[in-house]
Amino acid sequence: MNELERYLQQILADLPQEEREEMHEELYAHLVEHRNDLMMNGYSEDEAVIQAIHSFGNERSINQELKRAMFPLLKIVRFVWSVFFVTVFLCLVSYATMEFYHPEFDNTLPGESVIGGFFIVVFIAVAAETLYEALNQQINVKWLRNPWLFFLVPSLLFGAIQSRALINHPDHYPEGLWLDLFAIPIGAFAYLLARQFFTLLFLNKKSAKNERRTLIR
Length: 217
Prior knowledge:
The structure is a single chain. The protein contains eight helices and no strands. The chain has helices spanning about 5-10, 15-40, 45-55, 60-70, 75-100, 110-140, 145-170, 185-215. The chain is elongated and about 80 Å long.
């Protein structure tokens, strides 16, 4: 696979199959034409490819713009999905902990606690997503823009700092209360899983359906 193909794959990642095929043909022709013009002006083939890609733009930014055009509510739907996912996940963790330590009780989660937890998740997720979007606009280093790195690493550091309280005063956190110290990293991990599930269940699923239609034709 040549460099232009790799570049186009990143631009068209997770887009519906039919649209991806149509756009691939058009974009590839445009890039090849630009590359050939540069080679006629004295550039080597490798230099012409690099220059053509550079003039076309950042592949991740183009990919996001295409997704926004095709799926205008994508980020909003993914955000709502992720917040509900995290809230349910944390509630399940809390309920499982209560059942583990006190199975003799009729363990339930108060409605106000669930609602309060939901809005806390919303607040933290909005702040994190806003910072992440700002980072994406300013940094072109791909690995630095990885959501797993951005969301998980700071939360793990926060959890490590919180663990000092457990080490110094373990008696303050009996019967599962120590999990409260690690709510941020647990929630961050659940949030990342939710984002990943959203892509697999909705975007890739839609692409797979289009691929099957193409094969049938």
